[in-house]
Specification:
The protein is mainly alpha-helical. 54% of the residues lie in helices and 9% in strands. The protein contains 4 helices and 2 strands, in the order βααααβ. A two-stranded antiparallel ribbon has the order 1-2. Helix 2 packs across helix 4. The termini are close together.
């Protein structure tokens, strides 16, 4: 089973050279929510995950990790 990975999101954002604020501005997802996603305190909806992935040049599946 695959689940959202806070670590992958943070790494992808940093590799893209973006701050949370910049990612928020480009994706339409609030900076506070991105912080929650990266800290594992919240999980994005598929719509929000798609917006983030699009800005980062990824597929939603790239933000997921295999568990179990």
């Amino acid at each position: 089973m695959k689940v959202f990975s806070p670590e992958i999101l943070k790494k992808a954002r940093e590799e893209a050279g973006l701050t949370q604020f910049q990612l928020a501005a480009r994706s339409g997802v609030a900076q506070a929510k991105i912080s929650q996603y990266e800290n594992g305190h919240a999980c994005p909806s598929i719509t929000k995950a798609a917006a983030l992935a699009d800005v980062l040049g990824l597929l939603v599946d790239d933000l997921l990790k295999e568990v179990g």
